[in-house]
Amino acid sequence: MPLGLEFRTALAKARAGEELTKEDIIDLLKAAPGEEASQLFALADQVRQQNMGDEVHLRGIIEFSNYCCNDCYYCGLRRSNKDIKRYRIPREEVLAAAKHAAELGYGTIVLQSGEDLYYSGAELAEMVAQIKRIGNFAVTVCVGERSLADYQLMREAGADRYLLKHETADPQLFAQLRPGTTLQERLERLKWLRELGYQVGSGNMVGLPGQTMATLADDILLLKELDVEMAGIGPFIPHHQTPLRDCPPGDLNLTLKVLAVARLVLPQTHLPATTAVGTLHPRGRQMALGCGANVIMPNLSPASYRKMYAIYPEKAGSKEDPDESHHKIVSLIKEAGRAVSSGRGDSPKEKFKYFPGESTGER
């Protein structure tokens, strides 16, 4: 089947390195199964290789609390879910997990939780500082919306990166799915993080009810406007204890197309092969590595807590221990013909190539 004119035109612009319009992005997202999708994925993989190399960066996640003050319609951690067993991992167990990550050779630790206001900014900063003393880690924090003062405390304690996904660029859909919050407030915090010198991560879900191709194009353009260092793009997966329980999951092929177009628009941004794509399909992460992804984020939380961090059901790796998760990820990277990075995986952007006071030049 011959390629459509609109798709061919948009792909040619991308191949030439020209700036893509919203209409171009939509045309690429509509890539038909078969030859169109294959050419889109091949170009995304080529752009990834040219800009980010063949190494895959491992970022070990420690999910230290599943308490959350928010009531998002799509998340199993929502405060109205009374059927979830809540936990907070004791600090010594968090540090033990980080030490094990150092032994496994990880260059990045991701401290992730629900929006748990039990922790003060000072407590989060101290957790960051203690982990930084364990090894030559980059530390990414992912604890949601906090005050400017809290972000500053964590940054001063040594936090290198912050992940705050915008979820959807549609302000009305955002407010509908995240009661009591606004997209404007979230974008304001992303601006604060940028001003504080963090390497900033954001991202969106694919397949949310009410989402359109135009919305997905806006997501990609927003990530470009934010100039993010990482963009987490994964499918919506319904949770049976949320208001969206009866909605269909996001489509894997559309998620891969969004990832591929994001790589074309954001050539120097780290893009993970998310756990969610691995949950939708046994080879989902391998597929994502072929569509522009260059990061995987294995779960290094102690095994006894994993099932309880159920943002969506049957999360890939939730029934494994940290060593099993690690070895499976390393194997799939090698099967994909890629190498595991031994560095921190900082942004290749010029402004992040040198951090004063560091003892290593690894990037």
Automatic annotation (TrEMBL):
Obligatory cofactor(s): [2Fe-2S] cluster; [4Fe-4S] cluster
InterPro entries according to UniProt: Aldolase_TIM, BATS_dom, Elp3/MiaA/NifB-like_rSAM, FeFe-hyd_HydE_rSAM, HydE/PylB-like, rSAM, rSAM_sf
Top-level taxonomic group: Bacteria
Classification via Pfam families: Radical_SAM
Annotated PROSITE patterns: RADICAL_SAM
Radical SAM core domain boundaries: 54-276
Protein's recorded name: Radical SAM domain protein
